[in-house]
Amino acid sequence: MTGKLRADPAKTTANTPLTLLDQQAQELRTRLAALRRSLANVQRDFSTSQLKEANEKLMLAVAQADTIAASAVHQLDQLVQTSQRDVVTGIPNRALILDRLDNAIALARRHGTHIAVAFLDLDHFKPINDSLGHASGDQVLQLVARRLQAVVRDSDIVSRYGGDEFLVLLTEVSQPADAALIAEKMLFALTAPSVVGRHRLQVSASLGLAIYPQDGDDAQTLIEQADAAMYRVKRGGGANFDFHRAARSTAPCGVDALKLPRRGSKFLPVSPA
């Protein structure tokens, strides 16, 4: 007997949960694929726009950091320069010349050479400030600094030691006569008439010299000996130079600091230009 087979109700009932699970799995697979596509899109969008923006921000931050660092270095350099330079004249101040003098002594000691310290004090500087004012006094100090720098050698250092005092480091001095020649040039350079404001001035100075190692083997001693020599000149009328005693006794024939012609002159602060 032929006829259609009827489905087993038990099997139909049993297959229904599997079908639902299969459908759910298919839906999950579909959703997972959609999520993967969305993730890929997000990654693509981030790499092309957000990543670019983030990179630009990073580069900007780096550039700003470089600018800030460069500015800080510049300000530090300026601070160092300010701490080592005289405010009025712009030349090395006391702190810097002492450092340079210590270095020069160490180098001279190592190589067995000589250096000289020139201590220069302007004659009759107080009337400038008293009669013409501090602004005119500052102009005179600036003028003196320029003239001293113009006549010394490139290896020498002119500094303002304080007030109207200048300390000059003379390197590579083979004999006292070398220092005497530069001292003459410095004093002579100051004697040229100058116009400050509406006044014509003539500048003179008293200058003392000390030689390493004859007059001392450290900075403080050399400065004190040069200062003492300078005050001897000032007591004698100024406008001249003198060695410290030890250096003068070893000066070669023909060099006598006390008999050099006086080329300087006093301040004339009240002469109208």
Q: Strands, helices and their partners?
A:
Layout: H1 9-84, H2 94-111, E1 115-122, H3 126-132, H4 134-151, E2 157-162, E3 165-170, H5 176-190, E4 194-196, E5 199-201, E6 205-212, H6 219-235, E7 240-243, H7 245-249, E8 271-272
Parallel strand pairs: 6-7
Antiparallel strand pairs: 1-3, 1-6, 2-3, 4-5, 5-8
Helix pairs in contact: 3-4, 4-5
Give the rounded overall mean pLDDT.
81
Second-tier CATH architecture of the largest domain: 2-Layer Sandwich
Widest sheet: strand order? 2-3-1-6-7
Rounded radius of gyration (Å): 43 Å
Sheet with the most strands, sense and barrel status:
5 strands, mixed
Sketch the topology as an H/E string, one letter per element: HHEHHEEHEEEHEHE
Global structural class = alpha+beta
Distance between the termini: 149 Å
Helix tally equals: 7
- Looking at the structure, the CATH topology of the largest domain is Alpha-Beta Plaits
Oligomer: single chain
Give the tally of structural domains: 2
Helix percentage: 55-70%
Low-confidence stretches: 10-14, 252-273
